[in-house]
From TrEMBL:
InterPro entries: Chitinase_II/V-like_cat, Chitinase_insertion_sf, GH, Glyco_hydro18_cat, Glycosyl_Hydrlase_18. It comes from Anopheles farauti. Gene3D superfamilies: 3.10.50.10, Glycosidases (3.20.20.80). PANTHER family: CHITINASE, CHITINASE 4-RELATED. This is GH18 domain-containing protein. It comes from the Eukaryota. SMART domains: Glyco_18.
Length: 361
């Protein structure tokens, strides 16, 4: 009896003392020409790891999107448990099809999807599931009912529930229900400007420089005003770069005209996107400009224009998360961090930095 009490007290203390560092792994990284596997992440020190991504069908079935997952990905991911007291989640992703399947399944096959999720997290031994709702094409009441139902089902098997949200779409969510039923809300606060705007934009300004322009601070203010439980909210930061081609290389301030996304990186091969290690290997040719008010940095070389977080801008965000009493931070995703020390400051520098800030608040 005494032993049980002591254990409980100890567990409470460790929960209070630890802030979340939620680290995503994107399973597409396993098929890059120089791949990153979950096993490579064992040098990081996150409190939660999220395997991104598994799909669903509109009929509410779980859909494995890459044969790598069941061949060795899930198994390799499980080995991260050797890192200590960590939690492993699986992300039901929206970004491979704009979230349409998930939207349809939640709207019309919700009960079936809830059951399939419960079976899936047990079968593959995850601690929890994260529902990716970074889109706006869904019915917020249907999502609230679904999250409520899923919470009850997962509670029975002692599994956890997270939801990822797009920071700038405050009105798209029933924030009270998400706060009540989710164990964590991962607050994706970046890419506030649509690529369709045809202008170069800061990837993730901490503060707004112009009234009406979104930032981490302005979007968080809206969520807080709507009553979000901030002790469930993790501020998501991105290690990668957003890249553009300028229309006129002499017009390169934030908001200047863009002719489109920058060229794809040699390893990740997605237009407008460079992993941190890809940018570091060309960084020397670039000129740097920091936006001290917004808390951002951009780089340019001729018509190439790149927005990426620096250690300083990230440090400010981590302090901001602590000062605002958030649950912690999240990194989306580790495979786009400096996986091979191309920047010369140590592999997985962003994860390391999160550790430095969050373990000594
Ligand atoms: C990732 O791990 C594999 C072995 O599983 C290894 O061959 C590869 O070099 C590692 N990648 C990096 C960037 O360290
Ligand atoms: C992980 O974090 C703990 C606590 O902050 C620290 O003692 C340990 O050295 C870290 N390990 C690594 C590999 O960073
Ligand atoms: C969407 O559903 C279809 C079949 O219903 C499936 O083939 C596809 O993989 C699903 N996409 C995602 C991203 O889950
Ligand atoms: C952050 O947001 C709050 C709430 O809207 C606002 O009062 C404050 O001025 C903002 N901070 C900065 C530096 O813009
Ligand atoms: C590019 O911008 C510069 C500076 O604003 C301007 O002088 C020049 O005419 C522009 N070039 C073109 C082709 O529009």
């Amino acid at each position: 009896m005494i032993k049980a009490v002591v254990v409980t007290v100890f567990m409470c203390l460790s929960v209070v003392a630890t802030q979340n560092i939620v680290c995503y792994y994107d399973n597409r990284a396993a098929s890059y020409s120089t791949p990153t596997f979950p096993g490579n992440l064992s040098v990081t020190n996150c409190t939660h790891y999220v395997y991104d991504g598994v799909g669903v069908t509109a009929q509410g079935e779980i859909r494995i999107l890459s044969s790598y997952d069941t061949a060795s990905g899930f198994e390799d991911f499980q080995k991260l448990r050797q890192n200590g007291d960590i939690k492993l989640y699986v992300l039901l992703t929206s970004d491979r099809d704009g979230g349409k399947n998930l939207t349809n399944a939640i709207a019309s096959r919700s009960e079936k999807l809830v059951n399939n999720i419960a079976i899936f997290v047990e079968q593959y031994n995850f601690h929890g599931v994260e529902i990716d709702r970074r889109t706006i094409d869904f019915d917020k009441n249907a999502l609230a009912r679904f999250v409520n139902r899923l919470r009850s089902r997962l509670y029975m098997i002692n599994k956890q529930l997270a939801v990822s949200v797009s920071a700038q779409f405050t009105d798209a969510y029933d924030i009270t229900s998400l706060s009540l039923y989710a164990d964590m809300i991962n607050f994706h606060a970046y890419s506030f400007t649509s690529p369709l705007a045809n202008t170069v934009a800061d990837l993730a300004p901490l503060y707004s420089t112009t009234a009406g322009v979104d930032s981490v601070n302005s979007t968080l203010a809206s969520w807080l005003a709507a009553g979000v439980r901030k002790n469930k909210l993790n501020l998501v930061v991105v290690p990668y770069a957003r890249t553009y081609v300028l229309v006129n290389e002499s017009q390169r301030t934030v908001g200047s005209r863009s002719a489109g996304p920058g060229p794809a990186g040699p390893n990740t091969k997605r237009a407008g996107f460079l992993a941190r290690y890809e940018f570091c290997s060309v960084l020397n040719d670039y000129t740097v400009v920091s936006g001290s008010v917004a808390g951002t940095t951009y780089y340019y070389k001729g018509k190439n224009w790149v927005s990426i977080e620096t250690e300083d801008t990230l440090g400010s965000k981590f302090i901001y998360a602590i000062d605002n009493g958030l649950a912690g931070v999240a990194i989306y995703s580790l495979d786009s961090d400096d996986v091979n020390d191309a920047c010369g400051t140590g592999a997985y520098r962003i994860a390391k930095l999160a550790n430095e800030y969050l373990s000594n608040p």
